[in-house]
Design a protein that fits this description.
single chain; 380 residues; alpha+beta
Length: 380
């Protein structure tokens, strides 16, 4: 049975953050130590990000700003420290809109499907909670059938879009008529804060907001339609790194742990993590063993957790600079949007000159340290 990812779509909030301007704001906070100022300058400067997007329009430097700011007082230049409840309330408000925008765009992009055909909904996020949740909002606002089955994958971190696609593929393999709408929305900037903690500063320099969506189904694609065949999935947890990437709920938002050991941990274990995926096809497994994975698989959708992570993946797997362009351009233009980011990279590959039948290896990294991967084929 052939299961495909169709209608791949992305969305971002309207407020654009310029990286150099954000660095100036965070570097000028009064509680920052000299070491903290140096870390801010370095982290923002080498991030590989030009700009990213946010639902927190207060964070821009233009205009007068709200009368009662909650995140950033433009008149004083001070970053504020709202509690978790306010941050999560803003998540519920803005995430609902992005779920519907991205999900609706994905359905509209599939020529022979409509809302009435959707049998399952899978929503993904680790940056907020509310109930009835985004799965309910999608079903209601997109006019999905009353009996649509709904699932939410919450708080898994940056790799969560991959198990969402795997679950969608399994649902389609169990029922050839299934049509699964998958939507990931992450509003990471709601949890940004000033700090002297190096891990917090690194996270502040990287994360942005965005949404990615697609339709997974075994129904045949339309003539000329561009899609990605979902061939195989694999998951691996590294023997070290449990404390180096984590996501916890604090009194003033969610607290990200992203240590500088993550790139080297990925470098040590990435070959072993992707081997179960590529070994499902002997030729690809042999190419990996010979250090030729980049020759055997044309396109690589690597989650751009940061520039150093991409550098490590490129050198360890001996990929070409061109094969990392989609990931690096996604990082440059949007930052790290947690679970939604790999969908942006896949969308960029699908919109490129990737030819029918060419292979795509996708990988995302998250708490654990967990590596989720998928093998796909370009169609159309």
């Amino acid at each position: 049975m052939t299961v495909t990812l169709r209608g791949l779509s992305t969305a971002v909030p309207p407020t654009r953050l310029v990286q150099t301007e954000v660095a100036e704001v965070f570097g000028a906070q009064p509680g920052l130590s000299r070491l903290g100022q140096r870390i801010v300058s370095t982290s923002f400067g080498v991030s590989g990000i030009d700009h990213r997007y946010t639902v927190v329009d207060e964070l821009t430097l233009s205009g007068d700003g709200p009368e009662e700011p909650a995140f950033f007082d433009r008149s004083t230049g001070l970053l504020l420290d709202p509690g978790t409840r306010l941050r999560n309330d803003r998540y519920a408000e803005h995430a609902s809109r992005l779920y519907v925008e991205a999900g609706g765009a994905a359905l509209a992009a599939v020529p022979d499907l409509e809302a009435a055909d959707v049998t399952h909904v899978i929503t993904v996020s680790c940056t907020g909670f509310y109930a009835p949740g985004p799965d309910f909002v999608l079903a209601r606002d997109l006019g999905l059938p009353a009996g649509v089955q709904r699932y939410h994958l919450g708080f898994m971190g940056c790799y969560a879009a991959m198990p969402a696609l795997r679950l969608a593929a399994q649902l389609c393999e169990a029922d050839a008529s299934a049509v699964v709408l998958v939507v990931s929305v992450e509003l990471c900037t709601l949890h940004l804060r000033t700090s002297n903690d190096p891990d917090t500063i690194v996270a502040t320099s990287l994360f942005g907001d965005g949404a990615g969506a697609g339709v997974v189904t075994a129904r045949p694609t339309a003539e000329g339609e561009r899609a990605l065949r979902l061939d195989a999935f694999a998951t691996r947890t590294t023997p070290q790194g449990e404390g180096d990437m984590a996501w916890r709920i604090g009194d003033h938002g969610f607290e990200m742990v992203l240590s500088n050991a993550v790139p080297s941990l990925i470098g040590e274990h990435i070959v072993g993590a992707i081997e179960p995926l590529l070994s499902q096809e002997p030729a690809l497994g042999a190419a990996l063993g010979e250090g030729r994975a980049g020759d055997a698989v044309e396109h690589w959708a690597i989650h751009p957790g940061g520039r150093s992570i991409l550098d490590k993946v490129e050198s360890t797997l001996r990929l070409s600079e061109a094969q990392l362009v989609p990931a690096r351009e996604t990082l440059r233009d949007f930052g790290n949007m947690s679970s939604a980011t790999v969908l942006f990279v896949l969308d960029r590959i699908l919109r490129s000159d990737a030819a029918d039948g060419e292979r795509v290896a996708a990988m995302a990294f998250g708490p654990g340290l967990t590596v989720e991967s998928a093998l796909l084929t370009v169609q159309g």
